[in-house]
Description:
This protein is mainly α. The protein has seven helices and no strands.
Amino acid sequence: MPSEPAAPPTDVGTARRPGFVVAAPVLGAMALVSAWTGWGGLALGLLAVVVALAALARLRGSRDTSRRGPLAGLALGLVAVGIAVVVEWSTLAGAVTYLETGGVRTLDECMRQAQNEKEQHVCKSQHLDEYRARYPSEIDP
């Protein structure tokens, strides 16, 4: 009995889900998990938004009405971008302040703007000569 080759499927487009449809919620979930790290969450969140919008654009003319994946990816990506911006806001604000002042601060200015011990330690390290001249009996930072 000779076996006949299987006939190719007649409608390949409806049986296969586009990669963007699946990638959008996956990237959105990864972005949300990494949003607490700041920049990584921001990058993944923006990528999730772009991929979700591309998936929604691809699904616009198709008969497949399942838009839940891209919409979930879009929502998760936007939430991740919001969290990442909040997390990185102090870094961004510090960079703007640094650029506005020309980047040159004295030890006193730096210590006034320091919000915790770690930042005070950074001030002492950045102005080490001035710190040693003022406080010779102190232990080096």
